[in-house]
Design brief:
The chain is mainly alpha-helical. The chain has 22 helices and five strands. It is globular and about 80 Å long. The structure holds flavin-adenine dinucleotide and iron/sulfur cluster (SF4).
Length: 520
Protein backbone atom coordinates (compact mmCIF):
# COMPACT_ATOMS: atom_id res chain seq x y z
CA UNK A 1 0.00 0.00 0.00
CA UNK A 2 1.43 3.49 -0.89
CA UNK A 3 1.54 5.82 2.13
CA UNK A 4 -1.70 7.76 2.45
CA UNK A 5 -1.80 11.45 1.59
CA UNK A 6 -2.46 13.78 4.49
CA UNK A 7 -3.21 17.11 2.74
CA UNK A 8 -3.96 17.73 -0.90
CA UNK A 9 -3.12 21.39 -1.55
CA UNK A 10 -5.26 22.66 -4.43
CA UNK A 11 -3.74 25.68 -6.14
CA UNK A 12 -5.70 27.59 -8.79
CA UNK A 13 -4.13 29.43 -11.75
CA UNK A 14 -4.47 32.81 -10.03
CA UNK A 15 -2.97 31.58 -6.74
CA UNK A 16 0.71 31.18 -7.64
CA UNK A 17 1.86 32.52 -4.30
CA UNK A 18 4.78 30.75 -2.71
CA UNK A 19 4.08 32.63 0.56
CA UNK A 20 0.48 31.35 0.63
CA UNK A 21 -0.96 29.99 3.88
CA UNK A 22 -1.66 26.70 2.08
CA UNK A 23 2.07 25.92 2.29
CA UNK A 24 2.30 26.59 6.04
CA UNK A 25 3.44 23.37 7.80
CA UNK A 26 3.76 21.57 4.44
CA UNK A 27 5.31 18.11 4.84
CA UNK A 28 6.84 16.89 1.57
CA UNK A 29 6.52 13.20 2.53
CA UNK A 30 2.84 13.46 3.53
CA UNK A 31 1.34 16.29 1.47
CA UNK A 32 0.81 16.81 -2.24
CA UNK A 33 0.05 19.81 -4.43
CA UNK A 34 -2.54 19.76 -7.23
CA UNK A 35 -2.84 22.13 -10.22
CA UNK A 36 -4.75 21.76 -13.47
CA UNK A 37 -5.00 23.52 -16.81
CA UNK A 38 -8.72 23.28 -17.50
CA UNK A 39 -10.24 23.65 -20.94
CA UNK A 40 -13.61 24.92 -19.68
CA UNK A 41 -11.83 27.76 -17.82
CA UNK A 42 -10.07 28.66 -21.09
CA UNK A 43 -13.28 28.73 -23.09
CA UNK A 44 -16.11 29.89 -20.79
CA UNK A 45 -15.29 33.26 -22.33
CA UNK A 46 -13.54 33.43 -25.73
CA UNK A 47 -10.07 34.01 -24.22
CA UNK A 48 -7.32 36.00 -25.89
CA UNK A 49 -4.49 33.61 -26.85
CA UNK A 50 -1.94 35.65 -24.90
CA UNK A 51 -4.06 35.49 -21.75
CA UNK A 52 -4.07 31.68 -22.02
CA UNK A 53 -0.31 31.50 -22.54
CA UNK A 54 0.27 33.85 -19.61
CA UNK A 55 -1.79 31.73 -17.20
CA UNK A 56 -0.55 28.30 -18.35
CA UNK A 57 3.09 29.36 -18.60
CA UNK A 58 3.06 30.94 -15.12
CA UNK A 59 1.40 27.77 -13.74
CA UNK A 60 4.00 25.48 -15.34
CA UNK A 61 6.85 27.63 -14.04
CA UNK A 62 5.29 27.54 -10.57
CA UNK A 63 4.94 23.75 -10.77
CA UNK A 64 8.63 23.41 -11.67
CA UNK A 65 9.64 25.72 -8.82
CA UNK A 66 7.67 23.57 -6.36
CA UNK A 67 9.21 20.37 -7.76
CA UNK A 68 12.70 21.88 -7.44
CA UNK A 69 11.98 22.11 -3.72
CA UNK A 70 11.39 18.37 -3.73
CA UNK A 71 7.61 18.71 -3.36
CA UNK A 72 5.26 16.36 -5.19
CA UNK A 73 2.95 18.10 -7.65
CA UNK A 74 0.01 16.48 -9.48
CA UNK A 75 -0.28 18.58 -12.63
CA UNK A 76 -2.75 18.33 -15.53
CA UNK A 77 -1.23 19.79 -18.67
CA UNK A 78 -3.35 20.62 -21.72
CA UNK A 79 -1.93 19.19 -24.94
CA UNK A 80 -2.35 20.50 -28.49
CA UNK A 81 -4.55 17.47 -29.17
CA UNK A 82 -7.64 17.78 -26.93
CA UNK A 83 -7.98 14.00 -26.60
CA UNK A 84 -9.99 12.94 -23.56
CA UNK A 85 -9.83 16.25 -21.72
CA UNK A 86 -11.84 18.13 -24.41
CA UNK A 87 -14.36 20.47 -22.80
CA UNK A 88 -13.70 19.26 -19.26
CA UNK A 89 -14.57 21.45 -16.30
CA UNK A 90 -12.53 21.96 -13.15
CA UNK A 91 -14.75 19.53 -11.23
CA UNK A 92 -14.52 16.88 -13.92
CA UNK A 93 -10.75 16.82 -13.41
CA UNK A 94 -10.58 17.26 -9.64
CA UNK A 95 -13.29 14.77 -8.64
CA UNK A 96 -11.65 11.63 -10.09
CA UNK A 97 -8.31 12.73 -8.60
CA UNK A 98 -9.87 13.03 -5.16
CA UNK A 99 -11.14 9.46 -5.51
CA UNK A 100 -7.76 8.23 -6.76
CA UNK A 101 -5.56 10.05 -4.24
CA UNK A 102 -8.04 10.00 -1.37
CA UNK A 103 -6.33 12.58 0.85
CA UNK A 104 -7.37 13.06 4.47
CA UNK A 105 -8.11 16.70 3.73
CA UNK A 106 -8.18 19.24 0.88
CA UNK A 107 -6.58 22.59 1.63
CA UNK A 108 -6.88 25.74 -0.42
CA UNK A 109 -7.37 29.50 -0.43
CA UNK A 110 -10.86 30.56 -1.57
CA UNK A 111 -11.02 31.27 -5.33
CA UNK A 112 -11.36 34.79 -6.71
CA UNK A 113 -14.46 33.93 -8.70
CA UNK A 114 -17.95 33.29 -7.34
CA UNK A 115 -18.66 30.71 -10.07
CA UNK A 116 -15.57 28.65 -9.15
CA UNK A 117 -16.44 28.92 -5.46
CA UNK A 118 -19.86 27.42 -6.18
CA UNK A 119 -18.27 24.67 -8.25
CA UNK A 120 -15.89 23.82 -5.41
CA UNK A 121 -18.73 23.66 -2.87
CA UNK A 122 -20.46 21.12 -5.12
CA UNK A 123 -17.26 19.03 -5.38
CA UNK A 124 -16.81 19.19 -1.61
CA UNK A 125 -20.31 17.76 -1.08
CA UNK A 126 -19.82 14.91 -3.54
CA UNK A 127 -16.33 14.00 -2.32
CA UNK A 128 -17.31 13.87 1.36
CA UNK A 129 -13.80 15.01 2.18
CA UNK A 130 -13.14 17.90 4.56
CA UNK A 131 -12.15 21.09 2.66
CA UNK A 132 -10.16 23.62 4.67
CA UNK A 133 -10.15 27.19 3.31
CA UNK A 134 -7.17 29.12 4.63
CA UNK A 135 -6.91 32.94 4.88
CA UNK A 136 -5.54 34.76 1.86
CA UNK A 137 -2.25 36.36 2.90
CA UNK A 138 -1.86 38.10 -0.47
CA UNK A 139 -4.37 40.88 0.19
CA UNK A 140 -4.13 43.56 2.88
CA UNK A 141 -7.57 42.65 4.23
CA UNK A 142 -10.07 39.79 3.99
CA UNK A 143 -13.62 40.27 2.66
CA UNK A 144 -15.13 40.07 6.17
CA UNK A 145 -12.96 43.00 7.31
CA UNK A 146 -14.25 45.01 4.35
CA UNK A 147 -17.80 44.02 5.28
CA UNK A 148 -17.19 45.32 8.83
CA UNK A 149 -15.87 48.60 7.44
CA UNK A 150 -18.87 48.87 5.09
CA UNK A 151 -21.51 47.97 7.71
CA UNK A 152 -23.93 50.78 8.43
CA UNK A 153 -22.48 53.17 5.83
CA UNK A 154 -24.90 54.89 3.46
CA UNK A 155 -22.53 54.61 0.50
CA UNK A 156 -19.19 53.00 -0.13
CA UNK A 157 -16.82 55.86 -0.91
CA UNK A 158 -13.32 54.90 -2.07
CA UNK A 159 -11.70 57.97 -0.50
CA UNK A 160 -13.07 57.08 2.97
CA UNK A 161 -11.97 53.46 2.61
CA UNK A 162 -8.52 54.52 1.40
CA UNK A 163 -7.94 56.85 4.35
CA UNK A 164 -9.06 54.09 6.73
CA UNK A 165 -6.60 51.66 5.08
CA UNK A 166 -3.76 54.18 5.31
CA UNK A 167 -4.43 54.52 9.05
CA UNK A 168 -4.95 50.77 9.61
CA UNK A 169 -1.60 49.93 7.98
CA UNK A 170 0.32 53.10 8.94
CA UNK A 171 1.11 53.92 5.31
CA UNK A 172 2.35 57.37 4.28
CA UNK A 173 1.56 58.80 7.73
CA UNK A 174 3.44 61.30 9.86
CA UNK A 175 4.12 60.27 13.48
CA UNK A 176 1.04 62.30 14.56
CA UNK A 177 -1.20 60.26 12.24
CA UNK A 178 -1.59 63.01 9.64
CA UNK A 179 -0.93 62.21 5.96
CA UNK A 180 2.59 62.74 4.65
CA UNK A 181 2.76 66.01 2.68
CA UNK A 182 -0.36 67.39 4.41
CA UNK A 183 -2.91 65.84 2.05
CA UNK A 184 -4.46 62.39 1.60
CA UNK A 185 -4.67 62.75 -2.13
CA UNK A 186 -2.54 64.62 -4.68
CA UNK A 187 -4.81 64.30 -7.69
CA UNK A 188 -4.71 68.07 -8.25
CA UNK A 189 -1.02 67.58 -9.21
CA UNK A 190 -1.85 64.63 -11.49
CA UNK A 191 -3.82 63.92 -14.65
CA UNK A 192 -1.98 66.23 -17.03
CA UNK A 193 -2.02 65.69 -20.78
CA UNK A 194 1.36 65.40 -22.53
CA UNK A 195 2.89 68.52 -24.03
CA UNK A 196 2.58 68.93 -27.82
CA UNK A 197 6.05 67.40 -28.22
CA UNK A 198 4.73 64.11 -26.76
CA UNK A 199 5.49 61.95 -23.73
CA UNK A 200 8.87 61.94 -21.98
CA UNK A 201 10.77 58.64 -22.36
CA UNK A 202 9.30 55.71 -20.44
CA UNK A 203 11.79 52.83 -20.80
CA UNK A 204 10.51 49.37 -19.94
CA UNK A 205 12.00 45.94 -19.35
CA UNK A 206 10.26 43.08 -21.13
CA UNK A 207 10.42 39.33 -20.64
CA UNK A 208 10.70 37.44 -23.93
CA UNK A 209 9.37 33.86 -23.91
CA UNK A 210 11.68 31.13 -22.58
CA UNK A 211 11.50 27.47 -23.62
CA UNK A 212 8.50 26.67 -21.42
CA UNK A 213 6.54 29.68 -22.61
CA UNK A 214 7.34 28.80 -26.24
CA UNK A 215 5.98 25.28 -25.64
CA UNK A 216 2.77 26.66 -24.17
CA UNK A 217 2.47 29.15 -27.05
CA UNK A 218 2.73 26.36 -29.59
CA UNK A 219 0.01 24.39 -27.77
CA UNK A 220 -2.32 27.43 -27.51
CA UNK A 221 -1.72 28.43 -31.15
CA UNK A 222 -2.88 24.99 -32.25
CA UNK A 223 -5.58 24.09 -29.77
CA UNK A 224 -7.16 27.55 -29.44
CA UNK A 225 -6.43 28.71 -33.00
CA UNK A 226 -9.78 30.47 -33.44
CA UNK A 227 -9.39 32.56 -30.26
CA UNK A 228 -8.77 36.32 -30.55
CA UNK A 229 -5.54 38.25 -30.02
CA UNK A 230 -1.93 37.89 -31.11
CA UNK A 231 0.78 35.74 -29.60
CA UNK A 232 3.92 37.22 -31.08
CA UNK A 233 5.24 39.99 -28.90
CA UNK A 234 4.46 38.06 -25.68
CA UNK A 235 6.51 39.75 -22.95
CA UNK A 236 4.77 39.04 -19.63
CA UNK A 237 6.70 38.15 -16.49
CA UNK A 238 5.76 34.52 -15.76
CA UNK A 239 7.82 33.81 -12.63
CA UNK A 240 8.12 35.45 -9.26
CA UNK A 241 11.71 36.60 -10.05
CA UNK A 242 10.55 38.20 -13.28
CA UNK A 243 7.59 39.87 -11.56
CA UNK A 244 9.96 41.30 -8.96
CA UNK A 245 12.26 42.56 -11.74
CA UNK A 246 9.24 44.18 -13.45
CA UNK A 247 8.42 45.98 -10.19
CA UNK A 248 12.00 47.22 -9.75
CA UNK A 249 12.04 48.40 -13.36
CA UNK A 250 8.79 50.35 -12.92
CA UNK A 251 9.98 51.98 -9.69
CA UNK A 252 13.24 53.13 -11.26
CA UNK A 253 12.06 54.07 -14.74
CA UNK A 254 8.42 55.10 -14.72
CA UNK A 255 7.13 55.78 -11.22
CA UNK A 256 8.53 59.34 -11.12
CA UNK A 257 6.12 60.50 -13.88
CA UNK A 258 3.32 58.01 -13.06
CA UNK A 259 1.08 60.42 -11.15
CA UNK A 260 1.49 63.37 -13.46
CA UNK A 261 0.67 61.47 -16.68
CA UNK A 262 -1.66 58.80 -15.29
CA UNK A 263 -4.57 59.77 -17.54
CA UNK A 264 -2.68 60.85 -20.65
CA UNK A 265 -2.71 58.92 -23.97
CA UNK A 266 -0.50 59.12 -27.05
CA UNK A 267 -0.48 57.53 -30.51
CA UNK A 268 1.70 54.42 -30.73
CA UNK A 269 2.42 54.44 -26.97
CA UNK A 270 0.57 51.69 -25.14
CA UNK A 271 2.19 51.52 -21.68
CA UNK A 272 3.63 54.99 -21.05
CA UNK A 273 4.33 55.44 -17.31
CA UNK A 274 2.01 52.69 -16.09
CA UNK A 275 3.44 49.75 -14.16
CA UNK A 276 1.83 46.87 -16.11
CA UNK A 277 1.97 44.94 -12.83
CA UNK A 278 -1.73 44.07 -12.52
CA UNK A 279 -1.41 40.73 -14.33
CA UNK A 280 1.51 39.30 -12.31
CA UNK A 281 -0.04 40.74 -9.15
CA UNK A 282 -3.43 39.14 -9.87
CA UNK A 283 -1.76 35.75 -10.35
CA UNK A 284 -0.07 36.46 -6.99
CA UNK A 285 3.44 36.26 -8.41
CA UNK A 286 3.91 39.65 -6.81
CA UNK A 287 2.54 40.84 -3.50
CA UNK A 288 0.72 44.20 -3.26
CA UNK A 289 2.63 44.86 -0.03
CA UNK A 290 6.00 44.67 -1.75
CA UNK A 291 4.73 46.97 -4.53
CA UNK A 292 3.57 49.56 -1.96
CA UNK A 293 6.80 49.18 0.07
CA UNK A 294 8.97 49.64 -3.03
CA UNK A 295 7.16 52.87 -3.96
CA UNK A 296 7.52 54.24 -0.42
CA UNK A 297 11.23 53.37 -0.39
CA UNK A 298 11.64 55.30 -3.65
CA UNK A 299 9.96 58.31 -2.01
CA UNK A 300 12.23 58.08 1.03
CA UNK A 301 15.31 57.79 -1.19
CA UNK A 302 14.24 60.89 -3.12
CA UNK A 303 13.85 58.88 -6.34
CA UNK A 304 10.13 59.57 -6.89
CA UNK A 305 7.88 62.51 -5.95
CA UNK A 306 5.05 62.23 -3.45
CA UNK A 307 2.27 62.85 -5.99
CA UNK A 308 3.36 59.75 -7.96
CA UNK A 309 3.97 57.55 -4.94
CA UNK A 310 0.66 58.48 -3.31
CA UNK A 311 -1.20 57.84 -6.60
CA UNK A 312 0.37 54.40 -6.99
CA UNK A 313 -0.30 53.50 -3.33
CA UNK A 314 -3.93 54.64 -3.73
CA UNK A 315 -4.42 52.35 -6.76
CA UNK A 316 -3.20 49.31 -4.85
CA UNK A 317 -4.04 49.89 -1.18
CA UNK A 318 -7.22 51.76 -2.12
CA UNK A 319 -8.82 50.71 -5.40
CA UNK A 320 -7.56 47.13 -5.61
CA UNK A 321 -8.71 46.23 -2.09
CA UNK A 322 -11.92 48.25 -2.50
CA UNK A 323 -13.09 46.43 -5.64
CA UNK A 324 -12.40 43.06 -4.03
CA UNK A 325 -14.40 44.11 -0.98
CA UNK A 326 -17.31 45.30 -3.13
CA UNK A 327 -17.27 42.05 -5.13
CA UNK A 328 -17.57 39.70 -2.16
CA UNK A 329 -20.02 42.01 -0.37
CA UNK A 330 -22.37 42.20 -3.34
CA UNK A 331 -22.12 38.81 -5.05
CA UNK A 332 -23.98 37.00 -6.51
CA UNK A 333 -26.61 39.78 -6.91
CA UNK A 334 -24.02 42.18 -8.34
CA UNK A 335 -23.55 40.27 -11.60
CA UNK A 336 -27.21 40.79 -12.55
CA UNK A 337 -27.33 44.57 -12.02
CA UNK A 338 -28.29 46.63 -15.07
CA UNK A 339 -29.19 50.11 -13.80
CA UNK A 340 -29.46 51.71 -17.23
CA UNK A 341 -31.73 48.97 -18.57
CA UNK A 342 -29.47 47.86 -21.44
CA UNK A 343 -30.75 45.14 -23.76
CA UNK A 344 -29.51 41.75 -22.48
CA UNK A 345 -28.16 40.61 -25.86
CA UNK A 346 -26.43 43.91 -26.75
CA UNK A 347 -22.79 42.79 -27.07
CA UNK A 348 -19.57 44.72 -27.74
CA UNK A 349 -18.98 45.87 -31.34
CA UNK A 350 -16.87 43.73 -33.69
CA UNK A 351 -13.95 46.20 -33.46
CA UNK A 352 -13.50 45.18 -29.80
CA UNK A 353 -12.20 41.80 -31.03
CA UNK A 354 -10.15 42.92 -34.01
CA UNK A 355 -9.25 46.59 -33.44
CA UNK A 356 -10.40 47.40 -36.97
CA UNK A 357 -12.26 50.71 -37.03
CA UNK A 358 -11.93 54.25 -38.37
CA UNK A 359 -12.17 55.65 -34.84
CA UNK A 360 -8.56 56.50 -34.01
CA UNK A 361 -9.04 56.35 -30.23
CA UNK A 362 -10.68 52.89 -30.31
CA UNK A 363 -8.08 51.62 -32.79
CA UNK A 364 -5.18 52.80 -30.60
CA UNK A 365 -6.67 51.33 -27.41
CA UNK A 366 -7.50 48.07 -29.18
CA UNK A 367 -4.01 47.76 -30.62
CA UNK A 368 -2.74 47.43 -27.07
CA UNK A 369 -5.43 44.84 -26.27
CA UNK A 370 -5.04 42.72 -29.41
CA UNK A 371 -1.22 42.82 -29.33
CA UNK A 372 -0.68 42.55 -25.58
CA UNK A 373 -3.93 41.46 -23.78
CA UNK A 374 -3.75 44.66 -21.76
CA UNK A 375 -4.58 48.37 -21.93
CA UNK A 376 -3.99 51.10 -19.40
CA UNK A 377 -6.73 52.45 -17.17
CA UNK A 378 -7.79 55.39 -19.33
CA UNK A 379 -7.99 53.29 -22.49
CA UNK A 380 -10.28 50.94 -20.52
CA UNK A 381 -12.40 53.59 -18.84
CA UNK A 382 -12.47 56.61 -21.13
CA UNK A 383 -12.17 55.01 -24.57
CA UNK A 384 -13.38 51.39 -24.72
CA UNK A 385 -15.60 51.50 -21.63
CA UNK A 386 -16.97 54.88 -22.64
CA UNK A 387 -17.79 53.75 -26.17
CA UNK A 388 -19.49 50.57 -24.90
CA UNK A 389 -21.56 52.56 -22.42
CA UNK A 390 -22.61 55.16 -24.99
CA UNK A 391 -23.56 52.40 -27.44
CA UNK A 392 -25.75 50.73 -24.80
CA UNK A 393 -23.73 47.49 -24.50
CA UNK A 394 -25.11 45.33 -21.68
CA UNK A 395 -22.80 45.73 -18.64
CA UNK A 396 -22.36 41.97 -18.11
CA UNK A 397 -21.58 41.43 -21.82
CA UNK A 398 -18.90 44.14 -21.48
CA UNK A 399 -17.50 42.29 -18.45
CA UNK A 400 -17.44 38.98 -20.37
CA UNK A 401 -15.56 40.65 -23.20
CA UNK A 402 -13.12 42.12 -20.70
CA UNK A 403 -12.60 38.72 -19.02
CA UNK A 404 -11.75 37.32 -22.44
CA UNK A 405 -9.33 39.97 -23.65
CA UNK A 406 -7.15 41.03 -20.68
CA UNK A 407 -4.34 39.08 -19.03
CA UNK A 408 -5.15 40.67 -15.65
CA UNK A 409 -8.90 39.93 -15.67
CA UNK A 410 -10.13 37.81 -12.77
CA UNK A 411 -13.81 37.94 -11.85
CA UNK A 412 -13.34 39.72 -8.47
CA UNK A 413 -11.51 42.64 -10.08
CA UNK A 414 -13.03 42.77 -13.56
CA UNK A 415 -16.71 42.73 -12.58
CA UNK A 416 -16.81 45.81 -10.27
CA UNK A 417 -14.58 47.73 -12.68
CA UNK A 418 -16.53 46.88 -15.83
CA UNK A 419 -20.15 46.46 -14.78
CA UNK A 420 -19.80 49.00 -11.97
CA UNK A 421 -17.22 51.73 -12.47
CA UNK A 422 -17.20 51.77 -16.26
CA UNK A 423 -20.80 50.97 -17.25
CA UNK A 424 -22.68 52.31 -14.19
CA UNK A 425 -24.59 49.03 -14.19
CA UNK A 426 -24.58 49.01 -10.36
CA UNK A 427 -26.31 52.40 -10.19
CA UNK A 428 -23.60 54.10 -8.12
CA UNK A 429 -21.89 51.55 -5.85
CA UNK A 430 -18.50 51.94 -7.55
CA UNK A 431 -18.86 55.43 -8.98
CA UNK A 432 -21.15 58.27 -7.94
CA UNK A 433 -21.99 59.12 -11.56
CA UNK A 434 -21.58 57.54 -14.98
CA UNK A 435 -18.18 58.13 -16.60
CA UNK A 436 -19.69 59.67 -19.73
CA UNK A 437 -17.89 62.18 -21.89
CA UNK A 438 -17.77 63.38 -25.49
CA UNK A 439 -14.87 63.32 -27.95
CA UNK A 440 -13.72 66.53 -26.31
CA UNK A 441 -12.28 64.59 -23.34
CA UNK A 442 -10.26 62.35 -25.67
CA UNK A 443 -9.05 65.40 -27.57
CA UNK A 444 -7.87 67.00 -24.29
CA UNK A 445 -6.04 63.91 -22.99
CA UNK A 446 -4.45 62.58 -26.20
CA UNK A 447 -3.32 63.41 -29.72
CA UNK A 448 -5.73 60.86 -31.24
CA UNK A 449 -8.27 63.32 -32.62
CA UNK A 450 -5.64 65.13 -34.66
CA UNK A 451 -5.10 62.07 -36.84
CA UNK A 452 -8.72 60.90 -36.95
CA UNK A 453 -11.11 60.98 -39.89
CA UNK A 454 -13.84 62.24 -37.52
CA UNK A 455 -14.17 65.66 -35.92
CA UNK A 456 -14.47 65.47 -32.14
CA UNK A 457 -16.41 68.78 -32.07
CA UNK A 458 -19.33 67.66 -34.20
CA UNK A 459 -22.24 65.43 -33.31
CA UNK A 460 -23.97 65.37 -36.68
CA UNK A 461 -22.92 65.41 -40.33
CA UNK A 462 -20.50 63.33 -42.38
CA UNK A 463 -17.49 63.92 -40.07
CA UNK A 464 -19.39 63.61 -36.79
CA UNK A 465 -17.37 61.93 -34.05
CA UNK A 466 -19.27 58.82 -32.86
CA UNK A 467 -18.24 59.54 -29.25
CA UNK A 468 -19.73 63.03 -29.42
CA UNK A 469 -22.90 61.95 -31.20
CA UNK A 470 -23.52 59.12 -28.75
CA UNK A 471 -22.64 61.28 -25.74
CA UNK A 472 -25.54 63.69 -26.35
CA UNK A 473 -27.80 60.80 -27.24
CA UNK A 474 -26.82 59.02 -23.99
CA UNK A 475 -27.68 62.06 -21.88
CA UNK A 476 -30.96 62.41 -23.77
CA UNK A 477 -31.93 58.73 -23.41
CA UNK A 478 -31.19 58.69 -19.68
CA UNK A 479 -32.18 62.26 -18.87
CA UNK A 480 -34.93 61.32 -16.39
CA UNK A 481 -32.56 59.19 -14.33
CA UNK A 482 -29.48 61.41 -14.59
CA UNK A 483 -31.29 64.62 -13.66
CA UNK A 484 -31.70 63.18 -10.14
CA UNK A 485 -27.92 62.98 -9.76
CA UNK A 486 -26.50 66.33 -8.59
CA UNK A 487 -23.12 65.56 -10.14
CA UNK A 488 -24.73 65.26 -13.60
CA UNK A 489 -26.59 68.59 -13.53
CA UNK A 490 -23.91 70.54 -15.40
CA UNK A 491 -23.98 68.05 -18.28
CA UNK A 492 -27.77 67.91 -18.32
CA UNK A 493 -28.01 71.72 -18.40
CA UNK A 494 -25.74 71.76 -21.47
CA UNK A 495 -28.00 69.19 -23.08
CA UNK A 496 -31.02 71.35 -22.41
CA UNK A 497 -29.45 74.22 -24.34
CA UNK A 498 -29.84 72.21 -27.55
CA UNK A 499 -33.02 72.98 -29.49
CA UNK A 500 -35.52 70.37 -30.66
CA UNK A 501 -34.23 70.26 -34.25
CA UNK A 502 -30.63 69.70 -33.11
CA UNK A 503 -31.75 66.90 -30.81
CA UNK A 504 -33.71 65.27 -33.60
CA UNK A 505 -30.58 65.26 -35.79
CA UNK A 506 -28.47 63.85 -32.96
CA UNK A 507 -30.96 61.03 -32.32
CA UNK A 508 -30.96 60.14 -36.01
CA UNK A 509 -27.14 60.25 -36.18
CA UNK A 510 -26.86 58.07 -33.05
CA UNK A 511 -29.26 55.55 -34.60
CA UNK A 512 -27.03 55.37 -37.67
CA UNK A 513 -23.89 54.80 -35.53
CA UNK A 514 -25.62 51.95 -33.70
CA UNK A 515 -26.94 50.43 -36.93
CA UNK A 516 -23.41 50.49 -38.37
CA UNK A 517 -21.94 48.84 -35.26
CA UNK A 518 -24.73 46.27 -34.89
CA UNK A 519 -25.85 45.52 -38.45
CA UNK A 520 -28.35 42.74 -37.66
P1 LIG B 1 -1.19 51.01 -12.96
O1 LIG B 1 -1.84 52.16 -13.63
O2 LIG B 1 0.28 50.98 -12.95
O3 LIG B 1 -1.73 50.94 -11.45
C1 LIG B 1 -1.04 50.21 -10.44
C2 LIG B 1 -1.85 49.08 -9.90
O4 LIG B 1 -3.00 49.55 -9.22
C3 LIG B 1 -2.40 48.10 -10.94
O5 LIG B 1 -1.41 47.18 -11.31
C4 LIG B 1 -3.58 47.48 -10.20
O6 LIG B 1 -3.13 46.37 -9.45
C5 LIG B 1 -4.03 48.57 -9.25
N1 LIG B 1 -5.26 49.22 -9.72
C6 LIG B 1 -5.38 50.44 -10.27
N2 LIG B 1 -6.67 50.73 -10.50
C7 LIG B 1 -7.38 49.67 -10.09
C8 LIG B 1 -8.75 49.37 -10.09
N3 LIG B 1 -9.69 50.23 -10.54
N4 LIG B 1 -9.12 48.17 -9.64
C9 LIG B 1 -8.21 47.28 -9.18
N5 LIG B 1 -6.89 47.51 -9.16
C10 LIG B 1 -6.49 48.71 -9.61
N6 LIG B 1 -7.62 45.80 -13.09
C11 LIG B 1 -7.28 44.51 -12.97
O7 LIG B 1 -6.30 44.18 -12.30
N7 LIG B 1 -8.02 43.53 -13.58
C12 LIG B 1 -9.12 43.82 -14.32
O8 LIG B 1 -9.78 42.92 -14.83
C13 LIG B 1 -9.47 45.19 -14.47
N8 LIG B 1 -10.54 45.54 -15.23
C14 LIG B 1 -10.81 46.85 -15.45
C15 LIG B 1 -11.86 47.18 -16.30
C16 LIG B 1 -12.17 48.50 -16.53
C17 LIG B 1 -13.31 48.84 -17.45
C18 LIG B 1 -11.45 49.51 -15.88
C19 LIG B 1 -11.81 50.93 -16.08
C20 LIG B 1 -10.41 49.19 -15.03
C21 LIG B 1 -10.06 47.86 -14.82
N9 LIG B 1 -8.99 47.50 -13.99
C22 LIG B 1 -8.66 46.18 -13.83
C23 LIG B 1 -8.24 48.50 -13.22
C24 LIG B 1 -7.03 49.11 -13.94
O9 LIG B 1 -7.42 49.64 -15.18
C25 LIG B 1 -5.91 48.09 -14.13
O10 LIG B 1 -5.57 47.51 -12.90
C26 LIG B 1 -4.67 48.77 -14.69
O11 LIG B 1 -4.95 49.41 -15.90
C27 LIG B 1 -3.59 47.73 -14.88
O12 LIG B 1 -2.45 48.28 -15.46
P2 LIG B 1 -1.17 48.64 -14.59
O13 LIG B 1 -0.74 47.46 -13.82
O14 LIG B 1 -0.19 49.31 -15.46
O15 LIG B 1 -1.78 49.68 -13.57
FE1 LIG C 1 -12.07 59.24 -31.13
FE2 LIG C 1 -13.78 61.08 -32.04
FE3 LIG C 1 -11.30 61.78 -31.45
FE4 LIG C 1 -11.79 60.25 -33.57
S1 LIG C 1 -12.46 62.35 -33.25
S2 LIG C 1 -10.18 59.95 -32.05
S3 LIG C 1 -13.50 59.00 -32.84
S4 LIG C 1 -12.84 61.01 -30.03
Amino acid sequence: MPPSIRNLIVVLGDQLDIQSTVFDHFQPDRDRIWLAEVEREATHVWCHKQRLVFFFSAMRHFRDELRERGWTVEYHELQADPGLDRGKSFGEILEPDLKRLHPERVIMVAPGDWRVREELSAIEKVSRLPFEYRPDRHFFIEPDQFAQWAAGRKGLVLENFYRWMRKEFGILLEPDGQPVGGSWNFDHDNREPFPKSGPPPAPRKSFPPDRLTREVSAMVAERFASHPGKLDGFEWPVTRDQARAALDDFIQQRLPAFGRYQDAMWTGEAVLHHSRLSAPMNLKLLSPREAVDAAISALQAGQAPLNSVEAFVRQILGWREFVRGVYWLQMPRYASLNELGCEPDRNVPQSFWTGETDMNCVREAMRSVVDGAWAHHIHRLMVLGLYAQLLGVHPYRFHEWHMAMYADAIDWVSLPNTLGMSQFGDGGIMATKPYCASGNYIHKMSNYCRGCRYDYRTATGADACPMTTLYWDFLDRHRARLVQNGRMLYQIRNLERKDAAAMQDIRAAAKRVREAEFPC
